[in-house]
Write a structure and sequence with these properties.
The protein is mostly beta strands. The chain is 11% helix and 33% strand. The structure holds flavin mononucleotide.
């Protein structure tokens, strides 16, 4: 592989520059007399495959923090570009002041394994139960087990493969929303032998 030369670096202040990250709609509440709510979260990640787990990092002052802490459940809904405006809006307005499902027109639908609703329009819905929480400082890290996943049937091909590249998923980097660009290769492409033309 070619070496890069003459790269000049600047010392930057410590910052949350990890990018790109997803910007997801997390649904919560809707149980025990609480109204269902939506919060936009960029600080989320896969953290374990057995059991399947993910994390979300939420500031304690968010309305959703109380809902997630009380119910111990939430759903990570992966938005497509069609929901970009709703993603941004749900990250600007608090559920203390607005019914975010009603205002965005997004449809709450039944989850399979948790009490809070999924967002029907989002192509992938990941239903989670909180297993641990860590108070890190500005944010609480909720570590959660994935109990069920729902996917848009239109994304599954005739061979039963999930074609997530057709979902039009969103990415977020340094304050900007992006669509995903073209594929550069499939997992493992760097070590796969090239087929010779016959
Ligand atoms: C793109 C984007 C990403 C965000 N990521 C996070 C996050 O990871 N954690 C967090 O606590 N707040 C995050 N926020 C802010 C919350 O979504 C926002 O404060 C929201 O209004 C809280 O809603 P709630 O009070 O109804 O819970 C993000 C906002 C935007 C627009």
């Amino acid at each position: 592989m070619p070496r890069s030369r003459n790269i000049r670096k600047l010392a930057w202040k410590p910052a949350n520059l990890l990018a790109p990250v997803p910007a997801v709609l997390v649904s919560c509440g809707g149980t025990k007399g609480t109204a269902a709510n939506l919060i936009t979260i960029a600080w989320t990640g896969s953290i374990c495959s057995d059991p399947v787990m993910l994390s979300i990092s939420v500031r304690p002052e968010r309305h959703s923090h109380g809902l997630i802490a009380a119910a111990g459940e939430f759903v990570v809904n992966l938005p497509s570009v069609a929901q970009a405006r709703a993603v941004d809006w749900c990250g600007m307005v608090s559920g203390r002041k607005a019914d975010k499902f009603a205002e965005t027109g997004l449809t709450p639908a039944a989850a399979l394994a948790v009490g809070c609703p999924i967002v029907a329009e989002c192509p992938v819905n990941i239903e989670c139960r909180v297993r641990r929480r860590l108070e890190l400082g500005s944010h609480t890290l909720f570590l959660a087990e994935v109990l069920a996943v729902q996917v848009d049937a239109a994304l599954v091909d005739a061979k039963g493969r999930l074609r997530l590249e057709k979902a039009g998923l969103l990415a977020f980097a340094h304050g900007e929303y992006f669509t995903l660009g073209r594929s550069l290769g499939r997992f493992g492409f760097s070590v796969r032998k090239r087929r010779r033309n016959a």
